[in-house]
Design a protein that fits this description.
Blueprint (H helix, E strand, L loop, with lengths): L1 H20 L4 H13 L13 H17 L18 E6 L7 H10 L7 E7 L6 H9 L2 E4 L8 H6 L4 E4 L8
Helix pairs in contact: 1-3, 2-3
Length: about 170
Amino acid sequence: TNQYFRHISGVLTQLRSSIMAAPDSNLWKRMALIFLQKANLIPLYFCQDSLRDIYVQRGEIVEFALKAAGFELDYSFPPQPFGRKKIRLGIHMRKWAPYTEGFASLPVFASLDRNKCEMYLYVHLSDGNPMEQYVRSLADRFVVLPEDVRECAAPIRADDLDVLFFCNNSTAVT
C-alpha cells in the first residue's frame, strides 16, 4: 500500500501540475475527466500516510473536470427564510438498499428530533426495497433525482436546505 500511495501521489501531483500549467488545453481537460470517471482510491484506506494532500489535489482535479465539462459549481445560497423553525437536512444517497453505506448512514438521521428538523432524501435510483421503504417513512420528502447528472443540483438547491449530507463513498470513487 505504501508503493501505491507513492504512485498515486506522484500521478496526482503530475496531473494537477499539468492542468494548472495549461488549463485551456483540451488534452488536460480530457485527462481530468478520465481521472474523475476512473480513479479508485480505496486502496489508500490501508496505508498509514496522511491522505490530506492527495484528497486536496483530487478535489482540485474534480472541480476542474466538472467546470471544464460545463457544470455550474458556484452557487450563492439565499438567506434562510425568516420564521423557519426547523433545520432542513438533506441526505443524498445513490440508492437506499441494504449496503454498507446505507447502514452506516442511518445513524446520521434516523433518530433526530423531528420537531427540530425536516428530512429531505435524494436518490438516483429507487426500487421500493424494504430499506428504501423504511427511510421513506422517516422523510418529509423523498426525491428521485433526474437521470441527467447536470440536472441533479436544481431540485436540491430549490429545497433550500441548511445541510446536505452525502452518504455515498465519494472519497473513494466519483
